[in-house]
Automatic annotation (TrEMBL):
Belongs to the YciI family. It comes from Kineosporia babensis. It comes from the Bacteria. This is YciI family protein. InterPro entries: Dimeric_a/b-barrel, YCII. Signal peptide: none annotated.
Length: 127
């Protein structure tokens, strides 16, 4: 099963440049997951100021360029894993957050663990 991990943080509280030690530890964690054959993709995302929001509301499509000031948090990075269970996804996500806790004191953020739906999941949708 595939799991998408979304890292959310306030863009204006990121605390400047992340410490180099943090990047080194994230790289080690990524190497371990890659060698295990479970990390499919990962990347950081540009700030919301460089993004665009396309919204369908009230039957109309609107396009708005960032930044999106009403958002308290933004998705700042993601990782896609191939894992056996949600528990395993939570384990890897917790390890990632512990690296931030240890190597970037004061930083705060939220990781959201979401299962990527496959054909078997659509069969369970109510009609």
């Amino acid at each position: 099963m595939r799991y998408l991990i979304l890292l959310k943080a306030a863009e204006n509280q990121m605390g400047g440049t992340p410490p180099p030690e943090l990047f080194a530890e994230i790289a080690k964690l990524g190497e371990e997951a890659t060698k295990a054959g479970i990390l499919l993709d990962t990347a950081g995302l540009t700030p919301s100021a460089a993004g665009t929001r396309v919204q369908l509301e009230g039957g109309k499509i609107s396009v708005v360029d960032g930044p999106f000031t009403e958002a308290k948090e933004a998705i700042v990075s993601y990782a896609m894993y191939e894992l056996r269970s949600q528990e395993e996804a939570i384990e890897w996500t917790t390890r990632f957050m512990r690296v931030h806790q240890e190597f970037w004191p004061g930083w705060e953020g939220t990781s959201e663990v979401r299962k990527v739906m496959g054909p078997e999941d659509f069969a369970n949708f109510p009609e």
